[in-house]
Amino acid sequence: MKTSIGGRAAQYVIAYLFMLVALYPIVLMIASSFKTNMEIFSNPLSLPSSFSFETYKKLWETVPFADFLWNSIFVSGVSVLLITVFSALAAFYLARFSFKWSGLLYFFFLIGLMIPIKLGIVPLFLLMKSLGLLGTLWSLILVYTASGIPIAVFILTGFFRTLPVELEEAARIDGCSHFQVFWRVLLPLIRPALATVVIINFISAWNDFFFPLIFIQKETLKTIPVGMMMLFGEYETDWSLLFAGLTLSALPMIVVFLLASRQFMEGLTAGAVK
Amino acid sequence: MGNIAADRQGIRPKGRASWLIHLFPLPALVIYTLFVIYPIFSAFTYSLYEWEGLKRGVFAGWKNFATLFTVEPFQEMFWNSFGHNLLYFVVEMVVQNGTAFGLAFLIYRKIRGAGFLKMAYFMPRLLSVIVVGILWKLILHPNFGPLNTLLTKIGLGEWAKPWLGDPDTALLAIILVNCWFGAGFAMLIFLAGLQSIPEELIEAARLDGARGLGMLWKIILPLCMPSITIMTIFTFIQAFEAFELVYAMQGSMGEPFHSTDTLAVYFYRLAFSSAGGGDVAIGLGSALAVVLFVIVASVSAVSLRLMLKREVRH
């Protein structure tokens, strides 16, 4: 396809203009966190006149941000670990063995891809209450783990199927048990798929707001998104504090993304367009 | 689908420890059944009973559904929110997915700096929806917000307005913020679709005289149909589940005057807050959940079929 010089120039203008649209609000958020309130209101668009970490200090003192951060890390970390381990075991079973119920079981897991789990929130709430888990981080971990399993089983089963069967036959002849075949031979081979599963589920657990909003009441057990929402309610007029809070809550994900952007972008689409 | 059992690579387990293999899927199965399947099916049951607070009352049949669709203010709330969800879907399709396809196409055509642009477009998707909501609420602030300041600075001062306070612009503002958030992900999906087009097909079309827009319409778009279909389904599901951004920007009443209400926000109000006027209404909330479930699941069922069809082909 040939394009005229003018057409080509227009393409560059559009591409880089949209880059500004995508990045500018994020840059603004970070820049504003270093400003004073006065500076934000009088000069909202400019860069900060000086870099001061005062606001971050204040943020640390006004809200238990360290608690929020730890809760987010703990909940997302444990959920992703459980999803990956449990789904890998199930996917191994579904992809490498055939019993008469295998098809049904696979289908049963895939139903979860169509179910918006948010709509089960009322029964979930009562279930967590009767299990005595309401108001604990485990209520979140269990929901995230359960709702992450379908996509993980789907992706991992697909990958396990692509591995040649000779590999495990050889391993079995060498005397490996099912678990050893799974753990030592196959798991290392599906590492890319595991990375995909980890990324997809980590993003959704880390950023989720709905379940902690309903399950968690205690201030020190809140995850970052809910903590931020509370901050907004209470300090609506202190913009520099708000911007610092937003920046701090976005930072971990941005840093991980900058370190592994390729893996992130490929991982996220792998589930959708294989 | 039933053929999976007769999979070519199926192995008949042998040996003494073979029953142990049945333990492998158990943890996933138990957690998933208990915390996904059970709650969703309970929501169906709940919708058929009367509720007093958190206590289940007598069997009510379809009464909750009838109330939802025939009694005011419920009837009006439903259709008002439903309309907003539809608008959400339409605007996302046109603005977010349209832009995203254009950007994916530019990157596909190997524009300079493509790797960096891809990262930049995707950046907003990394933020939590709550962060996005609060950030844009600040940007759109009527007095101190950077957007109105910017408009004034470039001489468009009369365009400045309280975007989120005006019932005419509030919903559109929220949906456009959602477009800002989601365009990068859509771009990646479309790019994956574009990159899966075999080079030879494009080459052959070029030899047949296809150029520019003709090439785009007649060759490239049809070949991108799988990724366009997937993205349409994603967008639909997301539009009908829209909750967090609205809640972060306009609270649980869909202010101003319910002009930004969505079905999920309305559902949250019925099930979890007395703000909707009266007590928490678990029966009504569950009935609404069932209706939303039917809307979303019937569309996702199509997506599941598509995914399975493609898998068979592999």
UniProtKB/TrEMBL annotation, chain A:
Protein location: Cell membrane
A Pfam family matched in the record: BPD_transp_1
Domain ABC transmembrane type-1: 69-260
Top-level taxon of the source organism: Bacteria
Regions that span the bilayer: 12-34, 68-92, 104-126, 138-160, 181-203, 239-260
Chief location: membrane
Keywords from the UniProt entry: Cell membrane, Membrane, Transmembrane, Transmembrane helix, Transport
Membrane topology according to the record: Multi-pass membrane protein
PANTHER family: ABC TRANSPORTER PERMEASE PROTEIN MG189-RELATED, ABC TRANSPORTER PERMEASE PROTEIN MG189-RELATED-RELATED
Family: Belongs to the binding-protein-dependent transport system permease family.
Name this polypeptide is given: Carbohydrate ABC transporter permease
Protein species of origin: Brevibacillus brevis (Bacillus brevis)
TrEMBL record, chain B:
Protein localization: Cell membrane
Top-level taxon of origin: Bacteria
Segments passing through the bilayer: 20-41, 86-108, 120-139, 170-194, 215-240, 280-308
Alphabetically ordered keywords of this record: Cell membrane, Membrane, Transmembrane, Transmembrane helix, Transport
Pfam families: BPD_transp_1
Organism the protein comes from: Brevibacillus brevis
InterPro entries: MetI-like, MetI-like_sf, UgpAE/MalFG_permease
CDD domains referenced in this protein's UniProt entry, alphabetically: TM_PBP2 (cd06261)
The protein's name in its UniProt record: Sugar ABC transporter permease
Lineage: Bacteria, Bacillati, Bacillota, Bacilli, Bacillales
Family designation: Belongs to the binding-protein-dependent transport system permease family.
Location of the ABC transmembrane type-1 domain: 82-303
UniProt keyword DNA-binding present: no
Keyword Nucleotide-binding: no
Membrane topology term: Multi-pass membrane protein
